Amino acid sequence: MESEAGSLYDGSCEVVAALDAIAGRWKLPILWRLAAGPVRYNELKRLVRGVTNTALTRALRELEADGLVERTEYPEVPPRVEYALSPAGRALEPSLEALVSWAGSRARGGVEVRRLAPDDDRTAVAQVYVRTWRAAYAGIVEQAFLDALEPGAWAASLEERAGRTWAAYADGGVAGVCTYGPARDEALAGWGEVVSLYVLPERGGRGIGSRLLDAALDALAAEGFERAYLWVLEDNRGARAFYERRGFAPNGDVMEVEVGGSPLREVRYVRGLTRRS
């Protein structure tokens, strides 16, 4: 037993490395926010709620010294300082994600993920679509279009895919929703598709998106699909980083779409599926 415990510190255990990395206060939320991509200092302070300038600066310096975070300063007026995970920091992402999921579940009463039931409130589920669209597309498409979004249309479409929709419930309400099914793209007949995955902005950081995605991928594998794909907004760096951590990779396909009169580009992400025993 002593030899096994000692081997935890021989550098081979990613979980121990992650725990060491977050030993100081604020380091876990800082690393987790940076996992989505480079972030400016002021934006990072906004995302890590409650942290002071002094605490944030100290934590970033320590993470830099540990080789987990890289700092880039751009010669602008005023200077723009941006932080990002180093390669060593990115290597800890799977363990960090597990810790964030566990901590969120323990701190906030847990999350229930289950298939959408016939008697579930479709309007409450559809509200997740409306609110996440308004957050995701703010500043990208016309605000009038976002303000006019109504849950009714989504609630009706849920009936078509209710049997292939997973919902997450937390704090007494719907926190996220994920729909999947056979590929709608004829060019990828025989593939599975993650049609949509949405989590309320205020419920982020609790592992809800990961649990919903895992449920959808497991269901596709159980149906016999060996590969799956999804589309993600090209400029949504946070979502792209999330899918990359979950084993997806871009395959080079790009699709031009129009949302509220604004032209946007989506990229296709793909991955293989493994049926769990």
From TrEMBL:
Stretches assigned to the HTH hxlR-type domain: 13-111
Key words of the record: DNA-binding, Transcription, Transcription regulation
Keyword Iron: no
This protein's record includes keyword Cell division: no
Coiled-coil spans in chain: none
PANTHER family in UniProt: TRANSCRIPTIONAL REGULATOR, TRANSCRIPTIONAL REGULATOR, MARR FAMILY
Protein name: GNAT family N-acetyltransferase
